C-alpha cells in the first residue's frame, strides 16, 4: 500500500513552511502529521483549535475539542495522542494511559513518543516505577539550559535506575567509555521498542565511528 502520510510544518505564527524552506531555516517550528486516511478539514481545524487551547493551559477546553476531532476522524491518531498528553499534563495517569493505548491501537508501529509513554505508564500502574515519572521525563523537553538539563537527567538516572529512557537521554550527554557504558546500562533494562531501538543504533554508531558520531 502506498504511504500517503503528509507532514505540515508551520512557524510560531502558523504560517506554512515547505521542506525546502525548512532546510534553510533556523529556530523552532511546529509540525503536524496527517495520516494515510482522508482527514477532513473540520477534523484538522478542531485539532488545531485544541492545540491552541492546550498551549495556553486551557486543558479542559482542549480535551473537549479533541474529543470532537476524534469523533470526526476516528482513525486519525493525532487527536487521540494529544488527548493522552493533555491528561498527562493534568496528572490524570489513568486517562493518559487509556488514550495512549488507543493511540497504539491506531498506530501500532508507533506515533511520536507513544511507545515510550505507554510502556512507562503501564509500569507505573504496576508499581514498578513511581507514578508521575513519565511526566517528569517529558518535562525535560522544555529545559533549554544545558546544565539544568544535565542535572535533571542525571537526577532521573540516579533516582530511577531501572528507567531505560533516562539512560538513553543520559548517554547522549556523555562521551567515550562513559557513553557506551550508559547505553549498555539502558539495554540491560526493560525498555520500550523505540528506546531500545535508539540505544542499539547509538551503540552501533559508537562502535563503528568510535568518536565524533552524531547521536539520535
Structure description:
It is elongated and about 50 Å long. α3 packs antiparallel against α4 and α10 packs antiparallel against α11 (193-209). β1 (6-10) and β2 form a beta hairpin. It is mainly alpha-helical and 216 residues long. It has helices at 19-23, 41-55, 59-72, 77-89, 93-106, 114-126, 133-138, 146-159, 164-171, 176-188, 193-209, and strands spanning 6-10, 16-17, 30-34. The longest helix has 17 residues, at 193-209. Strands 2-1-3 form a three-stranded antiparallel beta sheet. Residues 1-17 and 19-32 have low confidence and may be disordered. The chain has eleven helices and three strands; from the N terminus they run ββαβαααααααααα.
Give the structure's gist in a few sentences.
With 216 residues, the protein is mainly alpha-helical.
Question: Termini separation (Å)?
Answer: 29 Å
Mean pLDDT: 86
The sequence of SSEs as H and E is: EEHEHHHHHHHHHH
Strand order of the largest sheet: 2-1-3
Radius of gyration, in Å, reads 18 Å
Poorly predicted segments? 1-17, 19-32
Helix proportion:
55-70%
Total DSSP helices? 11
In quaternary terms, these chains amount to single chain
What shape does the CA trace take?
A: elongated
SSE class: mainly alpha
Give the amount of beta strand, in percent: 5-15%
The major β-sheet equals: 3 strands, antiparallel
Number of strand elements: 3
Amino acid at each position: 500500500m502506498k504511504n500517503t502520510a503528509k507532514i505540515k510544518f508551520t512557524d510560531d505564527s502558523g504560517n506554512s513552511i515547505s521542506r525546502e524552506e525548512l532546510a534553510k531555516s533556523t529556530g523552532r517550528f511546529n509540525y503536524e502529521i496527517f495520516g494515510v486516511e482522508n482527514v477532513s478539514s473540520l477534523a484538522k481545524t478542531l485539532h488545531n483549535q485544541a492545540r491552541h487551547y492546550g498551549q495556553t493551559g486551557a486543558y479542559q477546553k482542549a480535551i473537549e475539542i479533541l474529543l470532537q476531532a476524534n469523533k470526526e476522524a476516528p482513525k486519525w491518531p493525532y487527536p487521540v495522542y494529544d488527548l493522552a498528553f493533555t491528561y498527562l499534563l493534568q496528572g490524570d495517569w489513568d486517562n493518559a494511559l487509556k488514550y495512549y493505548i488507543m493511540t497504539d491501537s491506531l498506530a501500532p508501529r508507533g506515533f511520536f513518543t507513544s511507545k515510550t509513554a505507554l510502556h512507562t505508564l503501564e509500569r507505573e500502574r504496576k508499581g514498578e516505577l513511581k507514578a508521575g515519572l513519565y511526566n517528569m521525563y517529558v518535562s525535560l523537553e522544555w529545559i533549554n539550559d544545558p546544565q539544568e538539563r544535565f542535572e535533571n537527567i542525571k537526577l532521573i538516572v540516579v533516582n530511577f535506575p531501572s528507567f531505560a529512557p533516562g539512560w538513553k537521554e543520559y548517554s547522549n550527554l556523555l562521551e567515550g567509555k562513559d557513553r557506551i557504558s550508559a547505553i549498555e546500562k539502558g539495554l540491560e533494562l526493560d525498555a520500550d521498542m523505540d528506546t531500545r531501538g535508539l540505544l542499539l543504533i547509538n551503540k552501533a554508531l559508537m562502535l563503528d565511528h568510535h568518536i565524533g558520531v552524531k547521536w539520535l
